[in-house]
Design a protein that fits this description.
This protein is mainly alpha-helical and 106 residues long. The chain has four helices and two strands, in the order E-E-H-H-H-H. The two termini are 24 Å apart.
């Protein structure tokens, strides 16, 4: 919260968190949310299910927790591929997949 307010130093407990760590953490969070958003948009266009069910299935796949509402068997091939990508991205990590594809991420 202190970093978002523009403070130069962020103190948690008795230790200072470097701004580099905070920026990288925010990048990971925003990347995951972006991938999740894109996946839900694609699923919304390809599947005929409620938005809440699609969001649940997407978060479950990206988080690799294994929960399902039992509707994935009825997904189209495109929807199944989207969920497979989310499962792989969640397992390997999105940043690891990006860095493997484009080289090093610094």
């Amino acid at each position: 919260r202190g970093f978002l307010k523009g403070h130069q130093r962020v103190i948690f407990g008795r230790s200072e968190i470097p701004s580099e760590v905070i920026v990288k953490s925010l990048a990971v969070l925003l990347t995951y949310l972006g991938v999740l958003f894109l996946a839900v948009i694609v699923l919304r266009f390809t599947e005929n299910f409620e938005l809440g069910a699609l969001v649940f299935e997407s978060i479950s796949a990206l988080s690799t927790v294994g929960l399902s509402l039992g509707q994935t068997g009825e997904f189209s091939p495109v929807g199944k591929l989207v969920l497979c990508f989310l499962m792989l991205a969640g397992r390997f990590g999105i940043l690891a997949m990006i860095s493997a594809g484009i080289g090093s991420v610094s």
